[in-house]
Design a protein that fits this description.
The chain is an alpha/beta fold. Helix content is 45%, strand content 16%. The protein contains nine helices and six strands, in the order βαβαβααααβααββα. A six-stranded mixed β-sheet has the order 3-2-4-1-5-6. α1 crosses α2, α3 packs across α5 and α6 packs across α7. The radius of gyration is 18 Å and the shape is globular.
Amino acid sequence: MGSIYLIRHGQASFGADDYDVLSPVGVRQAEVLGKHLEQLGISLDRCVSGSLRRQQHTANAALEHMSRAPALDIDEAFNEFDADAVIRTLLPDLLPEEPEALHILRNGAHNRAEFQRLFAKLIGRWISGEHDKPGLQSWQAYVEQVEGGLRRILDQATSKQNVAVFTSGGTITALLRLITGVPAAKAFELNWQIVNTSLSQLKFRGSEVSLASFNSHVHLQLLKAPELITYR
């Protein structure tokens, strides 16, 4: 069987003007991941990334520490869903019951717990399919986008290949939904636990895919540096 390693990007710049940039911690996480894969003797036959900068930077920083690393291919199917668009589009309908939501979401870096509570509520509305709006990609459309990327990998892969996909938490969540059949709401409960640069492994034979492991971050745990274990 072949393996697909789903790798969440390193810590991005939450609360900054541009989120799509790795923080210094995110760069360190990616470097530690690359060294860990090298120590494990995992030979990658193909590497794929979404087109977001934090995804590509994570890939390049990790692959620099591997002795045999293929060139990085880009497939936008593995981009994160547009969280800003979800918030911007669905927030107005939430304000009557959460009048402080706009202030909290604008200042999320200073109130992470409340930001996460409100963000999770908006995501719940998005994935329900009951609040679809013109111009906003639906959850179902996003899942189909991710599925297309997975199918392209499977169509091009040969048996026993190891493929690394540098992506984001939402993408991994969509793949969990596709592969295990877990309800979207449960999948997103798992999403909130996905550690930056964690590894989730899929096993495949032809077009058949199964989940072998989820959210492994032993490469960070072994360093006994709690500041390297982050979720955003």
